Amino acid sequence: MKKIKSILFLIIGIYIAPPIYAKTFLITCATSGFGQAIASALAEQNHDLILLGRDVQKLQELKDILEALYKGNYRIYGIDFKNANSFSVFKDTIKSTSLDGIVVIPPRYKCSQDVIPATEEWQDFFNMGFLMPLEVLKASLSSLKNPSAIVIIAGITSVYYIPEYANSNILRLMWLGELKNLTFKLGPLGIRVNMISPNIILTTSHNKRIQLKADQEGISFKDQLEKESAEIPLHKFGTAEDVAEAVSFLISERAGHITGVNLLLDGGLSRAY
Ligand SMILES: NC(=O)c1ccc[n+]([C@@H]2O[C@H](COP(=O)([O-])OP(=O)(O)OC[C@H]3O[C@@H](n4cnc5c(N)ncnc54)[C@H](OP(=O)(O)O)[C@@H]3O)[C@@H](O)[C@H]2O)c1
User: Fold this and answer.
1) Tens of pLDDT along 28-76?
2) Which residues are near ligand 1 (CB < 6 Å)?
3) Which terminus, N or C, of the chain has the lesser number of Cβ atoms within 10 Å?
4) Ligand 1 atom closest to Cα of 237?
5) What is the rounded CA–CA span in Å between residue 149 and residue 225?
6) The pTM is what?
7) Of 4-18, 51-65, 232-246, where does mean pLDDT reach its minimum?
8) Could you tell me which residues are beta bridge partners of residue 262?
9) Nearest CA-CA partner of 187 in 260, 130, 253, 115
10) How much distance in Å is there from the Cα of 53 to the middle of ligand 1?
């Protein structure tokens, strides 16, 4: 009888108890192509998510989709990186949350192609792409557990110069420097920090760009894609799901001894050693 009772308790326990690996992760720019794929991948593993984004309606749509598919708890905060005041509710409430990890996705933001952009333009660019994402990180640091992890999304120009992305080359290098900074400062607190540097990933903006180029050249999307990816050893561009897989690994305890790494997601394109 005692044995039957304990088996029953075990079965009920397994059924009601949340999976022991359920964690809480924060994602900035969660409505981006990368953000949505990362949110889906982490939600699929039953993790709870805090989703930040500029457009609250888009965030709500993402939350609705996740709730329909998975069992986690999803909180959303509207944050506009152009408006520091929009951070206040998030800053107040995040203090009382325990976080297992943060995925820092800076917004997509372009600087002009001028040889040296105007000072205000630079300031705007650094603000959006560097200072504001850091502000989110700063506000959330005291909520990070020991152990926990941060994953920063940068771009391949952190190691590979591309003239057309002249100004973003500089932004990516700033993140590379900050990666080292955070690795050394947060390592003793049990916080790992890694960065992912993707080459072109087939999100909406690149699909549109490739289609436009194909139309201009009078060829199919597939032919244009093959042309553009010919130099890549794997002969293809990555997908948002590839990015999400890499984030899922780096943010998990499976990467428990990996910190300070800038992981290239470029199909082998970079020739740097
Ligand atoms: N896709 C690629 O090939 C690729 C490659 C390397 C690196 N990256 C980098 O990875 C990041 C994400 O790229 P993605 O292609 O996934 O981006 P995306 O789909 O174009 O989305 C851009 C994101 O930026 C957000 N955003 C724009 N202005 C904002 C503001 N003022 N405040 C807050 N959020 C703002 C957008 O919010 P809304 O939804 O409200 O518009 C959206 O979530 C970017 O930093 C990009 O440079 C992308």
Assistant:
1) 999 999 999 999 999 999 999 999 999 999 999 999 999 999 999 999 9
2) 29, 31-35, 53-55, 58, 80-82, 105-108, 153, 155, 198, 200-201, 203-206
3) C
4) 3
5) 35
6) 0.93
7) 4-18
8) 195
9) 260
10) 10
